[in-house]
Q: What sequence folds into this?
């Protein structure tokens, strides 16, 4: 079984990206790469990943996203992640959450 297949199996068992990274001894960046590759191959969906993130963590992420909308400084995805990092949030899991929650639609998916 490849690392990517192992990541898919663990998502389907209900493990979050953070839990998968710990279990597999990989970085969150590597796990994100595996997961989004699996989405592109249509072997996983964004919803599969979102369902593995706890309700408490989703609530914290949504609160951070909402509070950031009124921010007058830097704008954009990376600024949101950087502000979460400064607050001590799991910014890597937030990055995956935001990418799954707010996907950009490419022309190849239309």
A:
């Amino acid at each position: 079984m490849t690392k990517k297949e192992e990541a898919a199996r663990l998502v389907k068992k209900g493990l979050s990206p953070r839990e998968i990274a710990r279990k597999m001894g990989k970085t969150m960046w590597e796990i994100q790469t595996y997961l989004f590759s699996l989405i592109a191959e249509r072997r996983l969906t964004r919803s599969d990943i979102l369902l593995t993130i706890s309700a408490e963590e989703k609530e914290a992420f949504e609160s951070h996203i909402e509070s950031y909308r009124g921010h007058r400084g830097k704008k954009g995805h990376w600024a949101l992640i950087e502000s979460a990092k400064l607050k001590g949030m799991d910014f890597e899991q937030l990055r995956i959450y935001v990418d799954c929650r707010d996907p950009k639609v490419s022309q190849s998916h239309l």
User: Anything to note?
Assistant: Residues 55-69 form the longest helix (15 residues). Residues 3-104 form one domain.
